[in-house]
Amino acid sequence: MIKNNDGGQLNQTSWWGVATFFRCSLEDDLSETDIALIGVPHSSGNGTTERDQHLGPRAVRNVSGEYRRFHKEFKISPWDACRISDVGDVSLPHAMNNDVTIKDIEAWYHDIDTAGVCPVSIGGDHSITLPILRALAGPQSKTTNEPLAVLHFDAHHDSYGVEDVGAKHFLGNYEWAGAWGKIMGDEGLVNPEKVIQIGMRGHGYTENDGIESHRLGYRVIDKDEFDEMGTDAVVAEIRERIGDTPLYITFDMDVLDTTVAPGVSNLEPGYPGMTMIEAMRVLQGLRGLNVIGADVVCLMPTKDNPNNITSINASIIMFEQISLIADRLGANQ
Ligand SMILES: [Mn+2]
């Protein structure tokens, strides 16, 4: 084996060595980590568009080495505040069968829950969020014994039910990428008053778009209301609603404007999406809340532009999610 005798400088470079999330070490032993960075290369939960979302984790491993950073606003290095590891990809032996895969993902996250580790995941399509929530907040969960708060960034409500798609299943999938937001409410995994959906935009398919979110009692801050309120007022409402409740953050890349996130599954053109700085300011405004896990979904690297801007922005959103958890864990040590 050729040893690295350069005093570790090569380990500081983004392009050298085996690609892992943010150049974290690969770790099999969950007792050796506080925050687990997880790839969920799943794409059969969204049958409406191109299905290359399973390539998201590999793309973020490739670009995130460059973004192993110090957090300027929090004034912390998340990498020093606690133990953060790349724990690999969820094993998906039935990848082309969505509803079976949803069960496989849940089983995998039961180990994360049992170990008391905070997961930060990169998908994969948005169907991955439901099994993660089931593992973290279901009847067997050790992470929490109360329904979760969920902050959901997305151009779409993903609570589409019978009224919107005309059938309980979508192309044969029951727990598909547009239904998880409804199912989590119906199953009582979340406290509806503490579910905040943010950034929805564009013409819906019917006048009932989002009706299930309202039926369930979620707070929907669509993009028009977000623009009227401004970032500070949005952050203030989120903090007041969520309080100390364990919070899960799920971030669909299509909430961002198509100019800064062209590589997504469901482009929502016509209406401007959130800017990166708006998204980051909302996330940074959550500092101190009890964030127990997070994900980034719907990255489609094969539709990205040549400088990989969507993958890079996905890694930056992950960095903010990681920093929120690391800041909290570091402060508690
Ligand atoms: Mn979406």
Tell me about this structure.
The chain is an alpha/beta fold and 333 residues long. The chain has a single domain (30-332), classed as Ureohydrolase domain (Arginase, Chain A, 3-Layer(aba) Sandwich). Helix content is 33%, strand content 15%. Helix 7 (211-216) links the parallel strand 5 (190-198) and strand 6 (219-221). Helix 3 runs parallel beside helix 4 (129-137), helix 4 runs parallel beside helix 6 (180-186) and helix 10 runs parallel beside helix 11. It is globular. The mean pLDDT is 93. Manganese (II) ion is lined by residues 154-156, 252, 254, 266, 298. Manganese (II) ion (MN) is lined by residues 154-156, 252, 254, 266, 298.
Provide tags for this entry.
333 residues; Arginase, Chain A; binds manganese (II) ion; 8-stranded parallel sheet; 8 strands
Quick one: overall form? globular
For the sheet with most strands, the description reads: 8 strands, parallel
Percent helix, as a range, is 25-40%
CATH architectural designation: 3-Layer(aba) Sandwich
Strand count: 8
> And the CATH topology?
Arginase, Chain A
* Ligand identities: manganese (II) ion
Sheet with the most strands: spatial strand order: 2-1-3-8-7-4-5-6
Please count the helical segments.
Answer: 11
Unreliable spans are none
Distance between the termini: 38 Å
Number of domains: 1
Q: In angstroms, what is the radius of gyration?
A: 19 Å
Structural class: alpha/beta
Portion in beta strands: 5-15%
